[in-house]
Amino acid sequence: MKTRSFLIPLFALAFGLGAMVTSRSQEASVPTPARVEYVTLRWDGRDNTHVVYADGKVEFLREQFAGIRRPPKTDERAYYLTLAMNALAAKGYDFAGRTDDEIVMRRAGGH
User: Fold this and answer.
1) Which of 15, 28, 52, 95 is the most exposed place for a label (fewest CB within 10 A)?
2) Per-10-residue mean pLDDT for the chain, 111 residues long?
3) Chain CA centroid to CA 68, Å
4) What span, in angstroms and rounded, lies between the C-alpha atoms of 72 and 47?
5) SS3 of 27, please?
């Protein structure tokens, strides 16, 4: 009888410790959501195309486009937006969506 009364609290203690360890390991395995930032690339002609960054900064691309001549018979909008998208991709942004005049790109981590 003494052995039995000693085992009951021992099993209860072991069960409680097991439940606590399982609970903590499940909490540790829950990933924290990644921070994502977006930019909008807005086409408004070669001289007014700009990027709106997540922090509200606006960068006009006129100066970057000034030294680049597009090949003959190439669509101006497609050509310069492609250059701008590739420049943003080099900074870690990926395509996220588009409208007729805007391209939205995103990157994880919020550099």
Assistant:
1) 28
2) 55 55 56 84 95 97 93 96 96 95 90 59
3) 30
4) 19
5) helix
